Amino acid sequence: MNELIAAAVAAPGAAVALLAIAWLLGIECRERWIARLTGLVYSFSAAALLTPAVRMCFGDAAGWSIPLGEWFRVGDHAFQFALRADPVSLPMLLLTALLAGIIGAFSRTYMHREPGYFRFFFCLHLFAFGAMIAFAAGNLDLLIVGWELVGLSSVLLVGFFYERSGPPASAIRVFATYRSADVGLLVGVFAAHHFRHTSSLEGIAGHALKPDEATIVGLLLLVAAMGKAAQIPFSGWLPRAMEGPTPSSAIFYGAISVHLGAYLLLRAYPLLTASPAALLAVTLIGLGTAVHGVVVGRAASDAKTSLAYASITQLGLIFAEIGMGWTTIALIHILGHSVVRTLQFLRAPSMLHEYHHMHAAAGGRVDAAEASLESILPEGLRRRLYWFALDRAHLDRFLDAVIVRPVFAVSAWLAGSSQNPKASARSEAVPVALQEGADA
Amino acid sequence: MPSPSHWFVLEGRNAGLLVQFLLLALLSLLAAPRQDRRRWAGYAFVVGGIVVSYAANHSFLFWIGWTISVVPWLMDQSIRPSSRISLAAGCLAVAAGLLLIEQGIHRDWGLVLLMLAVVQRKGLFPFHGWVADTFERTDVLQSSLLFNSHLGAFVVMLTDSSAFLGVPRPALTLLADLGLATAVLAALAAVSERNPRRQLAFISISQASIILAGIEGASRVAVSGAMLHWIVVPLATTALAAILRGIEVRETPDWNTLRNGGLAGRYPRIAVFFAIAALALVGLPGTLGFVSEDLLLHGALQTHPWIGLAIPVSTALNAITLFRLFSRIFLGARRSPSAVIPDATLRERVALTLIAALLIGFGLFPSVPLGLTSPTAEIAAGAGWK
Description:
The structure holds two protein chains of two kinds.
Chain A: H1 2-24, H2 31-57, E1 64-74, E2 77-85, H3 89-110, H4 117-136, H5 140-158, H6 166-196, H7 211-228, H8 237-240, H9 246-255, H10 260-267, H11 269-272, H12 276-297, H13 303-323, H14 327-361, H15 379-390, H16 395-416, H17 423-426, H18 432-439
Antiparallel strand pairs in A: 1-2
Helix pairs in contact in A: 1-2, 1-4, 2-3, 2-4, 3-4, 3-9, 3-14, 4-5, 5-6, 6-7, 6-18, 7-10, 7-12, 9-14, 12-13, 12-15, 13-14
Chain B: H1 12-31, H2 34-37, H3 40-55, H4 59-74, H5 81-103, H6 107-122, H7 129-137, H8 140-148, H9 151-157, H10 169-191, H11 196-216, H12 220-251, H13 268-281, H14 288-300, H15 307-330, H16 346-364, H17 367-382
Helix pairs in contact in B: 1-3, 1-8, 1-12, 1-16, 1-17, 3-4, 4-5, 5-6, 5-7, 6-9, 7-8, 7-11, 8-11, 8-12, 10-11, 10-15, 11-12, 11-14, 11-15, 12-13, 12-14, 12-16, 12-17, 13-15, 13-16, 14-16
């Protein structure tokens, strides 16, 4: 069984390696070959993961710990390549394999004759490989590997249509948010090392850490989870990430990538239980994000942005569930939300197309007949709320004011101090690229 | 002064570093555009000087090598006087420091002067200006080669097992802490720079400063991490410098105003090489950068807890800067491929492919570079203050 699970995780990695070798050798991959490879990889992964999932459902096994040896060792430090398939990770692995396969099949026609067809599928496989490593990781060191690969592939797909001006600017904004929040994960893992000399999930579980230490590590992991799951104040990147192709939006921002943050908290839950402060922070962030998503989503003017804010709302609720200790409900919520949101993202373009047809056929008389809940509010408050929502709760301005601009100010000062009197004229006083991202 | 037959020595502490530097010099020459290769005298000074310093078995020869390697910049009128003064002061500080230590008079002052020379050569704050200046105004590949020789780090690595040095640990701890601070400060400075050459200089300083903390860290793990980082930073920054120079020669872009250059359509291979080098430099899993940073963090965390903050913060800032640079040069409105200008010349392709293969191959199979660097790491970890 161990070999089967390991092979299922490795299969997308093999696809990445195959495509990379083909590119290096200058072999022109036909669309049909790429589509077949994709079908083969995810059919295999899903089938291989189905067996342990069935066994677990029938209570034959509680889970599998899969030591695959050491990646490297120096002295007493070794990077352990250990996977685990348990009631938390196995459903996520199966979900990734199934949805990546579905997205692959959908993209076969959706991306047909697109110049970046090869690039899209390369990034899809890289993403699936990263997600599977992150979900199956037996320690936090390995989780970082998957986490980083997911982030990289995500950014590459946001900037997929690189010849336009919007996607690269959005990709920079997404990348900057990811990397900033990832500092929390890295520092959290190394804080765990510092306190307990381990990054294994068991090693830092429960009361292995003192309450103060658990609070520090827990809050640092929460920062990383907030970045990946678009929780406030980092929520601004998710609507911008919709610049990528629709199928990638579906699997990244509807299903797998955005749930990685919640998954990290589920994995770290035994640690969080040792810190009431960290659990309270998770709950408050989640509830705040849920309200934020509902309010801002009401002012969204396009389908993908509406779906993005709907996702943010659900992710906020999932965070709140984890914070309140309802971890099983949170896991079921993740699975259900992933499937529904993927369907909505994939259906959105054709649904809009049909709506426009219907609109034209009815002579422009198809009206939005929904009742507005906001109508019960006073006019003044409604206007303020609309302005608040239209500016996405001013969160991007807030981040620009408290992080981006101070960083650029310090940077310009440091660059100017490098014995170059004209340096300040050649350095950016305002963050042009990041500002572009904010304006996109 | 030993007899001429003992002037130079090739042993565990320097053999690997010497081979590594010569490979780097070869790759730099291979990737350099034709018009830059004509400046062979500059390369001869740098390579000759560094090789003499690495192999020197006496302090005087070490100083000679150190000085020869910076001669092209001391003579170059295009860089600012302050940079030339800085480089000359570094040479004088080494000379005076080594002399005072060797003579045994005012040994403490000798150590101070030597440490100041290391700070200058490594481009640690506040002596970082010359690195940015030489990267910007002179041959970027030659400047990169000089900086990536990491002669300053080599001095730190030479412990009291060496023939002519004996540096007490507190001085080196201070140096390592300054290196960690520089890693963050240089990464910050790069963020607002518009000139890609200066950005690359700051990023090189930032990533290379961490090596000091690894060498000084009290464990074999930290020293091994530093040794791997010593491979990653030179390889990746050389690739990035070669790519920047190659684009300058092809397109003569105005770096200060360039936005959305859209060159990925015209030079797809070069764009991919840029991405690989940049990602390796900031420690993407699957590249050697990830392994080196993992070892540095785990190894030096006990002696330098701040490394747990300095490395994630500096690499995050450097990653954002490099991605913005990539976006400025390669993304944007697609430019059709040119029939006249090649995507990557054969020489560039060979050099950049080799660099990419080393960064990824060593990253996937890190036991190979760990084995290759173990003689140096063992000496550094086992000698002197450890």
